[in-house]
Amino acid sequence: TVSRQGWVDGRLTAELHWERPISDLPLHHYKVFWSHCVRLDQQENLPSNPCKPKSVIVKHKTVTYKNTHFILRDLEPFSLYFIQVQAVTIPFGPKKLSSEKAAVFIDTNRLKNATYNWRTQPQNVVKDLRVLGFHRTTLDDLEARLVWSASPGRFQVRWAPHPSCSSVKNNPTYQATTKAFQYNIDHLVFNCKYQVIVNAISSSKSSRFTFTTPLCPQVNSKLPC
């Protein structure tokens, strides 16, 4: 649904809201798609079959599964927009599952010259940082899949063995960047404690997590221990 729409700081803006789908599968994020269908004259009514694409360009954004709202900005007046929202599960294995797209139209021809007190956007804070599973790539190398929730952006991932892990020398620190809400960290050894820090590059706040890797026989793999 479209809960609010109007002029904000000279920009035509609309706020979408949707309900979280009922599913046994863990959600990872939502995808929001919008396209400019037709440009309406000021006195023209909404046509019965309104979506005649003005162009083939379809814009889209990713929204963290924690949020069920999204703000569209810089819309054109006297126009019609076709909006779709799709839920996507956590990818685990070769495929990730997506829901059917829910759709709604926004008719900016009907907007009133209103101004709202919109929420200021908070810092992009990483939440729910956790290990989804472990995977062996070689006889000696172990990977862990990290997942988290946040707003779209670029993230820095850093990990290092805990000082208590005597099987790793010199306590090396590794780091990487990603745009995804997940990352496979490698160079892990069995039965060792690790510290992980993930933060959005645009944010000064970070999320920290400590975990212990399993013993070799505890990892489901065809490779021998």
TrEMBL record:
CDD domains on file: FN3
Protein name according to UniProt: Fibronectin type-III domain-containing protein
Source organism (scientific name): Cuerna arida
